[in-house]
Each structure stands twice: as structure tokens, then as C-alpha cells.
């Protein structure tokens, strides 16, 4: 629309300065949103990583405590000095048929540690049913990723002194220590670290079958 031969400002659109100002404002807004998004993603990643570490540590600790509670002998540690090994007699599993040494879904209603299938476990050294031990220790062969290892008897053979291949219970371990407070009570500490995240669990486990 022309007024006196001139174009009305209302129909002229944005000036160059106005466009530059608009672009600058939008850039500031987009930069702020990007920073918020980056921070949110980083926080989510850190939280997820810590949750994963915590889940691994809890699973490992619960498994260890399960075997301690069912044992009738704590072979190591011997005192409260704090060592990187825990050894207890295994008398919890029922995964195999004790006579055939074959895997059975429901076991055979006898503990696998009952090697002679007479209903008695860990009788004494003169019997064909000596204690079978399960051991937890640290594998430090990879300096950047220590692993908590589990060594457990191999009940699928007739040999009494053989073990399954060591299995990894959890990775990214920076500390695993065990202390003996009494004949029935051990303290366990497990610390995991990955990146900037660290989780540490401490507990005491009581062997209910030791008098």
C-alpha cells in the first residue's frame, strides 16, 4: 500500500537489523536448550552407570552372603586383618544327581556336597566325603579392571578335588576385603568403580550352621 508515493512500513517486512537481532536471540535460546539437553543426557548416563554398578555389587554380595549363611566352615579369613579372599565349605547347591553326576533340573534332594550320597555332608577327612570349598578372590591380572572371581567345586565328575573354571562374579572392582570377627561371623566389603561413579557395599554374614 502506497501513501504519498511511499511504501507503508507495515508492508515493508523486517529490516536487516531486525533479522540479525532475531537470529541472535534464537541462537542464544538454542544454545541454552542444547546445554540443558547435554546436561540432562550426561546426568542420565551417570545415574544409569551408577545403578548398573550398584546392581552388580548387590548381586555379588547377595551371592557371597548366601553361601556364608549355609556353610558349616569358614576356612578363610582366619582373623580380622582384612584379606582379599573368602573361603567357605559349600553345602547349599543341589544341581546334580550325586550317583550319576549328571545335571538334574530339580537335583536329587541331596546336597551336591554329599559326595557319597549318604545324607551326611562334610563328615571328616577319613570318609569319602571331605568338605568342598567355594572361594572368592580378586583377579588383578588386568590393572584397569579387577574382577571378583568365584571358584566352586565341579560336582559333575566323580573326582572329589576338581573345580569348575573360575567364574567372574563382577567387574570394575577396586576393593574386596573380608574379616573374621568370630567363628561364625565375617565382614565383607566390596567397592566398584567405573568412570566417575563409585559404589561401596559393606555387610556382615553369619554362618548359621557353626556352633
Entry summary:
With 211 residues, the chain is an alpha+beta fold. 26% of the residues lie in helices and 28% in strands. It has one helix at residues 16-70; strands at 2-3, 6-7, 74-76, 85-89, 133-139, 146-151, 167-180, 185-194, 197-206.
The total of beta strands comes to 9
**Helix percentage range:** 25-40%
- Per DSSP, the total helix count is 1
Mean pLDDT level = 88
Features of the shown structure:
211 residues; single chain; two-stranded antiparallel ribbon; seven-stranded antiparallel sheet; 9 strands; alpha+beta
List the helices and strands and how they pair.
Layout: E1 2-3, E2 6-7, H1 16-70, E3 74-76, E4 85-89, E5 133-139, E6 146-151, E7 167-180, E8 185-194, E9 197-206
Antiparallel strand pairs: 1-2, 3-4, 4-5, 5-6, 6-7, 7-8, 8-9
How would you describe what is shown here?
This protein is of the alpha+beta class. The protein has one domain. It is 26% helix and 28% strand. The protein contains 1 helix and 9 strands; from the N terminus they run ββαβββββββ. The strands form 2 sheets. Strands 3-4-5-6-7-8-9 form a 7-stranded antiparallel β-sheet, covered by helices on one side. The chain has a two-stranded antiparallel sheet with strand order 1-2. The mean pLDDT is 88.
Amino acid at each position: 500500500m502506497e501513501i504519498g508515493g511511499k511504501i507503508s512500513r507495515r508492508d515493508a517486512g523486517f529490516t536487516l537489523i531486525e533479522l540479525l537481532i532475531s537470529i541472535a536471540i534464537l541462537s542464544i535460546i538454542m544454545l541454552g536448550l542444547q546445554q540443558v539437553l547435554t546436561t540432562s543426557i550426561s546426568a542420565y548416563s551417570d545415574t544409569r552407570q551408577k545403578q548398573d554398578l550398584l546392581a552388580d555389587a548387590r548381586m555379588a554380595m547377595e551371592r557371597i552372603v548366601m553361601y556364608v549363611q549355609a556353610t558349616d566352615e569358614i576356612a578363610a579369613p582366619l582373623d580380622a586383618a582384612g584379606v582379599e579372599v573368602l573361603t567357605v565349605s559349600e553345602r547349599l547347591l543341589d544341581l546334580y544327581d550325586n550317583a550319576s553326576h549328571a545335571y538334574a533340573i530339580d537335583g536329587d534332594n541331596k546336597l551336591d556336597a554329599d559326595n557319597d550320597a549318604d545324607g551326611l555332608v562334610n563328615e571328616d577327612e577319613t570318609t569319602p566325603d571331605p568338605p568342598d570349598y567355594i572361594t572368592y578372590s580378586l583377579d588383578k591380572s588386568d590393572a584397569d579392571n579387577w574382577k571378583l572371581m568365584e571358584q566352586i567345586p565341579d560336582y559333575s565328575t566323580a573326582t572329589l578335588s576338581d573345580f569348575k573354571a573360575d567364574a567372574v562374579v563382577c567387574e570394575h572392582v577396586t576393593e574386596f576385603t573380608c574379616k573374621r570377627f568370630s567363628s561364625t561371623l565375617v565382614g565383607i566389603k566390596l567397592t566398584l568403580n567405573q568412570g566417575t561413579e563409585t559404589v561401596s557395599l559393606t555387610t556382615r554374614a553369619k554362618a548359621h550352621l557353626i556352633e
